[in-house]
């Protein structure tokens, strides 16, 4: 992951902003900001500390406000909205697509929501309510309602004349949706077919019949998988009766994929991907402090295990010197297995059907690496303390701990999922507890039996 | 990340495959396999252990071979190719798009490459060589060459007649590319405009003039950023002289985004996202063993620090019991900062321009959490060992270590990147070394000074 041009550019931009802000060249800043795309401004706002973020936000042209709000993360959005007047908010909200509006609606003050709904046409209000009635992480929550529909019993030529009359198409329109008079979804008519097929043909003859529309209650993640596997750009969303509700576009699916991956990475360190990196110190400290507190419990359990053997340590102080090696090697090996299994589960490669095979394999890998590194550590310890028995003990403890780590790393995430707990968030703490306890117990326990 | 329907379905499928394979119902298996899409078969093959994978691969209809090979990960692909005859490979290779063919070409035996190139038309061979001349992780490596071009000085109506004559368009065609007679890129003509605009207008009047084409040497990651920010579906790729070479489609960009995220997650545990989860035990052990070896060096350094204070530990054995708490809390806090910074860098939020602010903030968070948890640990330790001096010492050591962890977590990734080393892969080992060494040194050092 070497520094790419893109990152450099984004950093250079940030640098020049920082300089312009420091020297108070507000006109320059205003010009620079408004030359950027909404997504780029959103990115910039996320990269700026609060005071400068507020200043830049003031300078953004109002017609971009809505778009930018739909791009920034939840934390930053709440702060930006807090800074805006009611009429600015209403104007911003009115400029948005329904799916984006639905996303930010919950952050808006009640008065604004009321005004926005008032200002909409009845049809739009009806559609927005349709989107809002589905959870954000379902197909219904992801969908937009800007579909263009045609009937099956007209010719391509009629469709072409209708489209020329219409004058323009929503962004990312690759298909028109063919529906009957009750809005029931019948099939897809691609723009490519409209421009390449004989204009005398009927829509019903040309359309794709066998496309299965997406049910509105399908999970966002499943939608993402479908888009990836079928290489879709847009897909129609239908209700339980097969009536067309809207469509999902690939840009929203890319966001789902991106967020899902971010979520895995961040949860494994007890972080939230929607957090503002410049959140006030107290807020960040509280969120992360909870994670530290949970880990402190783990550490105290490990200490308690060590405490059981304090008499042994007092006699052979070399044990205190060597014991962190056993625990830490177990932790590292376990987290490799854990990461592999959590990702495999997220990608659907691993589940109850092949869990046993994965476990067997991971135990073998743990055993083999346990043997290898146990030998190395045994030699080092024997040379260091001039006592081959210490070498034998640490080798045995390490082998035990690496096998335990493989067992724990492979089973904890599956167990967590069965309990309905997010494995990415919770597994690593439990794993550390296991590898610490087993590591210290095996090493100090063996030493107590053998050396005393 | 609760169990989604998609994962359930994929697991159910895997389960029924496993059962069918066990009972040897080969006809059932063949039918089940060939009902799936290529991407779904690829996913299935990745989820099966080697022996069953080979069996299923034998049953796949030959015309799907090429597509499936372009979907599976590098490791699995090499194994599947190994199992195929030359003529099967040639047939599979011939069925692929140039960008996919370019991706798998390096895995093919020389004889197959030769035959595939021989079988191609001169134009296709020329185009394949163009794709091959760019590294896989650049725009040139991602691009496909199935562009449809038009001239600016014809009417929309002429374009429509040309397209009807042509009969079909490549998948994911949202724009035709407007070029001059030397193939220099001039602009974009959307299918949407072709079907909505007055057919008497000239292409040059309707086309989008201000779209900046992608230079062939732009990095894949930068391409992904561009697609995300501008909500693109396809984009033209040009050489240094502005001549059209091909186009990039969103499906390949989604793969880049997915792989980049996988890479971050896997590297942090010293794993490779292209590894086969069912690689032979010896292969997996070797790869992961190296990572364990590197971490063993860290652990030995930590032990050496403890060894410096063995006389102190011998006198106050409570120190041995408590010392892992200081090190592990530092490690957890540091890895939070580290994850935040590595992701911030990958997303372009963090770089040299705002590094100092991030550092200040992280130090403050570390200090605050250090104070809080130092107090808690101090109380616990004092009660446990009935010696308030031990409480004071561990509190001080913990505060020091959490501040050091914040410092290390925020600066190591930036330093690694400057050195040209992948921060996701290397930072965590260095961080652990820092938090272990500082933690043990601060705690045992203070104890030596104060207690003895």
UniProtKB/TrEMBL annotation, chains A, B:
MF-aspect GO terms: magnesium ion transmembrane transporter activity; metal ion binding
Listed InterPro entries: CBS_dom, CBS_dom_sf, Mg_transptr_MgtE_intracell_dom, MgtE_N_sf, MgtE_transporter, SLC41_membr_dom, SLC41_membr_dom_sf
Membrane topology: Multi-pass membrane protein
PROSITE patterns found in the cross-reference section: CBS
A Pfam family per the record: CBS
Localization: Cell membrane; Membrane
GO CC terms in record: plasma membrane
Regions that span the bilayer: 290-309, 321-342, 363-384, 390-416, 428-451
Record SUPFAM superfamilies: CBS-domain pair, MgtE membrane domain-like, MgtE N-terminal domain-like
Keywords assigned by UniProt, alphabetized: CBS domain, Cell membrane, Magnesium, Membrane, Metal-binding, Transmembrane, Transmembrane helix, Transport
Residues of the CBS domain: 143-206, 207-265
PANTHER family with a match to the protein in the record: MAGNESIUM TRANSPORTER MGTE
Subunit description: Homodimer.
Function, in words: Acts as a magnesium transporter.
Annotated family: Belongs to the SLC41A transporter family.
Name of the protein described by the UniProt record: Magnesium transporter MgtE
Lineage: Bacteria, Pseudomonadati, Pseudomonadota, Gammaproteobacteria, Candidatus Tenderiales
């Amino acid at each position: 992951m070497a520094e790419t041009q893109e990152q450099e550019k984004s950093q250079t931009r940030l640098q020049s902003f920082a300089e312009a802000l420091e020297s108070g060249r507000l006109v320059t800043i205003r010009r620079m900001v408004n030359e950027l795309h909404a997504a780029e401004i959103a990115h910039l706002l996320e990269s700026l500390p609060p005071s400068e973020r507020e200043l830049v936000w003031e300078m953004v042209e109002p017609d971009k406000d809505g778009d930018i709000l739909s791009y920034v993360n939840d934390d930053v959005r709440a702060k930006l909205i807090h800074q805006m007047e009611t009429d600015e908010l209403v104007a911003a909200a009115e400029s948005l697509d329904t799916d984006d509006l639905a996303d930010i609606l919950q952050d808006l003050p009640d008065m604004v929501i009321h005004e926005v709904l008032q200002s909409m046409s009845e049809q739009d209000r009806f559609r927005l309510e349709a989107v809002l009635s589905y959870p954000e992480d379902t197909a219904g929550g992801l969908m937009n309602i800007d579909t263009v529909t045609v009937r099956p019993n007209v010719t391509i030529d009629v469709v072409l004349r209708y489209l020329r009359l219409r004058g323009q198409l929503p962004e990312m329109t690759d298909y028109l949706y063919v529906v009957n008079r009750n809005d029931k979804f019948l099939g897809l008519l691609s723009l490519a077919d409209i421009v390449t097929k004989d204009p005398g043909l009927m829509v019903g003859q040309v359309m794709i019949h066998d496309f299965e529309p997406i049910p509105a209650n399908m999970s966002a993640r499943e939608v993402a998988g479908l888009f990836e596997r079928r290489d879709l750009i847009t897909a129609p969303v239908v209700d339980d009766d097969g009536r067309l509700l809207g469509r999902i576009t690939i840009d929203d699916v890319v966001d789902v994929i991106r967020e899902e991956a971010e979520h895995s990475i961040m949860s494994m360190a007890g972080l939230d991907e929607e957090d503002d990196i410049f959140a006030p110190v107290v807020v960040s400290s509280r969120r992360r402090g909870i994670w530290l507190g949970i880990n402190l419990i783990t550490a105290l359990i490990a200490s308690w295990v060590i405490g059981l053997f304090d008499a042994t340590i007092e006699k052979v102080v070399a044990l205190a010197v060597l014991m962190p090696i056993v625990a830490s090697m177990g932790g590292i090996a376990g987290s490799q297995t854990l990461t592999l299994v959590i990702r495999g589960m997220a990608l659907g490669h691993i589940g109850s059907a092949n869990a046993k095979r994965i476990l067997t394999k991971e135990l073998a890998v743990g055993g083999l690496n346990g043997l290898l590194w146990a030998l190395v550590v045994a030699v080092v310890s024997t040379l260091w303390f001039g006592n081959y028995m210490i070498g034998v003990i640490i080798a045995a403890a390490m082998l035990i701990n690496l096998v335990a780590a493989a067992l724990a790393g492979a089973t904890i995430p599956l167990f967590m999922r069965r309990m309905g707990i997010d494995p990415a968030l919770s597994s690593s703490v439990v794993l550390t507890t296991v590898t610490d306890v087993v590591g210290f117990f095996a090493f100090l326990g063996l030493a107590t039996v053998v050396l005393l």
